[in-house]
Design a protein that fits this description.
Number of helices: 10
Strand content: under 5%
Largest sheet: none
Structural class: mainly alpha
Amino acid sequence: SPLNAVTQFGDLATSLYNAGIFNTLRTVGAATFDKTQINLRDLTIENITQEFDNNNATSKIVDTVFRATGLNKMDRIGKLTLVNSTLKKMQKKAKKNDAKLLSDLQIYFEQDAGQVLQDLKDNKITDDVKFLLANTLMDFQPVARSEMPQYYLSSGNMKILYMLKSFTIKQL
């Protein structure tokens, strides 16, 4: 049902939690019209979740239904809002030389954290910044194989048991 697509607005709560109300509200309009600074292709993310990152018949049928009901569009808006509002938040913190942000960057980038901080200050979208934003998205949604349980990765045809469940598992 197209009404089910409306439930995807719940994804905006993730952005509110992660980036704050001001950054989220500034970004949601741009995300609606695909006018954001970062798009999902920049992060090599094309599908709602990892389960649909293949070309089997079931995935194609589900993808067609998701497109027809508007679920894909609503999901895209949620993801773009989360990623771009987080970018705005990080850029603001970088310009204030936020020590917590630098500490967080050191977890991912070790000795290169200072350069990533400078990239954020300068509003540069480097591969490291894209990596950081993709990791932020993956903290909330299973959009890559690395976010899937081991059983999913090694179970062959038993992957169907995880179909449409990985998002809920990730949220838990």
